[in-house]
Amino acid sequence: MTKTHRAALLLAMVLQACGDTSLAEPASSEQSVAALETAAEPADILARLQSIPGLSVVLEQPSPFPGTRFFLLQFEQPADHERPQGERFQLRMTLLHRSVDAPMVLSTEGYMLATRPWQAEPTALLGANQLSVEHRFMGTSVPASRDTRLLTIYQAASDSHRAVQAFKPLYPARWLSTGGSKGGVTAVYHRHFYPEDVDATLPYVAPSNHGLRDVRYVHFLAKLGDADCRAKLESFQQDVLLRRGELLPFMDALGTRWNTGFTVVGGPDRALEFSAVEASFYFWQYGTASACASIPAPGAPAAETFAFLDAVVGVAFTYSDRFIAPFEYAYYQAATQLGWSRYPANHLRGLLRYPGENTPDVYVSFPVTEPFDMRAMLRVEHWVRNHGKRMLFIYGENDPYSATAFSVREDNDAFRFFAPEGNHSASIGGLAEPERALVLERLFTWMGVSAPSAEVRAQALEHATEAATSKPAGVAPLQSRAGSFGLPESQ
Q1: Pairing relationship of beta strands 175-180 and 104-108 according to DSSP bridges
Q2: Confidence (pTM)
Q3: Cα 425 to Cα 452: distance, rounded to the nearest angstrom
Q4: What angle do CA 227, 230, 236 make, to 5 degrees?
Q5: How many CA atoms lie within 13 A of 398 on its CB side?
Q6: Are 18 and 58 in contact (CB under 8 A)?
Q7: I need a surface site. Which of 268, 270, 420, 468 has the fewest CB within 10 A?
Q8: Under 8 Å CB-to-CB from 221, ≥6 apart: which residues?
């Protein structure tokens, strides 16, 4: 099994905005409409974008999708939405433009933004525009003060809200919000705080953790796969910990290869132990049952054992200083509001030197001074279950994050589906019938788009899957620091 890791984790584009971003607040809808109407008709989309107060068009890039244009943008935001006249910062966004008459997909990112053209699955299915929003404190969207008290789900939701306010006059058709993993969670809490911003929400593999040691993951993993595969995984984890002395030189070599150390998490021995403990989680997050046959048996050559561990976990990308650094604020969010998982460890008793120490604050190089706020996401979860309308959650049957899936009520025209044998890459295309047909019917109905024929729909799903998997700069899921869209094979 291979878990890929692409270059977007570290390659943050240095942006230099053009245009006036001095306005303290976005214009009202009436003001924005007036500004747009003053542009020459038929107005070029670039001119219309430049008419949005506070928005800077950084550059336009060629788009590989026929009939589209792609723009890299910056949008001035208050660092504190409750004090809009205070500190400001530039929020990075991208726009894939098709037509002002087409629906708009708001893609909320949980981490840094993909700065090259890509389409989310619903964007391709709907033939929609796509506005993608970088998460605050990620990539280049960082307030100068770096005041972590401003890194809350409310503040991030308000970033998305202001973007919707600014762009809706230009794109008056229906809006859908979406996101994957932590980005899916971002879409959910944006909808919670601002339920009327969009017409519907389609989160993918979005977890709702209960606290910093959510035991539901332990129970979920205890039932995944057949007994033989679980036994192989447990024996492999035990073998890694029993052979620390043999495997630690591989940790040193990995650090040399990537020019990084493991000091943030407490050293290579600690990183190796964390890798072993989390191996079963990562195995199922992006793997399949077919990989069970490739699990090295105890006593296998050390190089083979470490290679498998690294392929599953992504040791350097997950635990080393160099690759943790871009995600420190995401760990901070996990430590203060979003929560964390507990990993199965009963079978590792007596082998652990750092039991219970794998918590999100370990991945942060600065002190986490705010206590964990259990109520923050519980309020969101309660709202989704009881009041969330036109919401459609997609999960993978075998993805550990499905252990903490949001609950919905069909009475609210809200649904939740699990792709059979799916992992953290679950999609509409991976659903079984008749669930897939229902999802598409609801999606097209919510967005006011005529449902295509079965043949056209099948082609759209195929193209949507290709588009979604081609995202050039995707980033880690909530606790998969290595990420679903990897790094280059060389430095």
Answers
A1: parallel
A2: 0.86
A3: 25
A4: 140
A5: 19
A6: yes
A7: 420
A8: 280, 281, 284, 343, 344, 400, 403
